Amino acid sequence: MIDRYTRRDMGAIWTEESKLKHWLAVEIAAAEALAKYGYIPKSVVTKIKRADFDVKRVQEIEETVKHDVIAFLTNISENMGEDSRFVHYGLTSSDVLDTALALQMKEAGILLKKGLKELIQALAEKAKEHQYTLMVGRSHGVHAEPTTFGLKMALFYAEFGRNAERFDRALDQIAYGKISGAVGTFANVDPKVEEYTCELLGLKPEPISTQIIQRDRHAEFITTLALIGSSLEKLATEFRHLQKTETQEVQEEFSQGQKGSSAMPHKRNPITCEKVAGLSRVLRGNAVAALENITLWHERDITHSSVERVIIPDSTILVDYMLYQMIKVVKNLVVNKENMEKNLKLSRGMVFSQGLLLNLISKGLTREKAYEVVQKAAAQVWADDHADLKSIALKDKEIRRLLNQKEIEAVFDYAYHTKNVDKIFTRLGLTKKRQAVKTKITS
Hints:
By secondary structure, the chain is mainly alpha-helical.
């Protein structure tokens, strides 16, 4: 088990017993369809509905026959008498395997949608809570311009909204079944048998198949999970950067009794975010394997089968785990506004350099000349630990020739950078009663 993960619903979908239950559900639905259209006696449906299997017995038979579906069919047929000859009538193994797999993936998808919804809600709440919490924006890891922590969270809210939309599409693409026979030609059963079977199971009939449902559908599902994983890693990495000792703007919750290091008692490490970041690599590896599965020989080989037995359960379980770990991180995130303020001031006003540049341009300087003037002033700040850009601007003769003190003071106003936060939130549907940016931060 990864960590002390207690959400067992997802894992339960992929147990051996669950797999065989889904196989039996397909066989029962197919029997109903076959009986409806006169291929087998209706009495068989009643008997197969009463049929059961034993996982150990199936495994015992498989040791001899070396075929999992035949072992399963042999086991459920053992107590059906002569009517057992009508079980699996006109079907091929992949009719059962692929249709049942679609059911399992659909069930897994429902759980993942719940996790995505909960994470999106947690991000929305965090965004609204910190809509006006000022902090420095960074590009290349270097101070850029002021932003808010709410905007940072709103960005992830939007991204996971797109992930949810992508996942809905992927889930729709995987919800297909097939009862089309050995090479997909419906040689032994009419297409209406497939249509009715799928209707009973809540799936759509695959418009065209070979012996299998084509694996581009499965690849779309797994690559979408990898995309979700990459977004989770992105969120985790952002928190990891902001938790560094030199930054300390946010921190994963550190619970009572938790310990960070066997050697250094002071440590409070972003271990959950690090786990999520690491596991995303597994998901991307699984996505590559899913893409490799698309190319098979002619109407089918089984090179995809062994791969899917690993990557599909593992990917759904991993994403489920990662989602709920990050939900906890977001909900319990410690946000250090004081350090955000302190760090915002570290660059001593240089975050306002573009505003100063634009004001000089508006007064008639060419962009090249204005850039040169502001860059020269900024260089003095870089060179002198006691200097700040506003003070230098107020003393600079070339700047003062064009801008008076009031105009320079206005450049160094944080509200200038947050005046459109409300509009961005409105675009995202994260509406909140408009309020002025009230900050104790002074430039």
